[in-house]
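tokens incoming
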């Protein structure tokens, strides 16, 4: 029975962090729309094009 100890505090911290990140993302999106910007938060990286250009 002693081996079945659950750590609720660490799981709660992880969930709170996810919720905080989601809230920040929503605020960024709202400010971006208010400024009239339509682009994404982060530029997308295209790793496939790099892989095609590599010489073997």
């Amino acid at each position: 029975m002693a081996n079945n100890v659950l750590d609720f505090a660490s799981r709660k911290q992880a969930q709170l962090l996810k919720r905080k990140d989601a809230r920040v993302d929503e605020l960024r999106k709202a400010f971006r729309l208010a400024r009239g910007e339509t682009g994404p938060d982060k530029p997308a990286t295209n790793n496939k094009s790099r892989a095609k250009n590599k010489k073997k």
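note: Residues 8-35 form the longest helix (28 residues).
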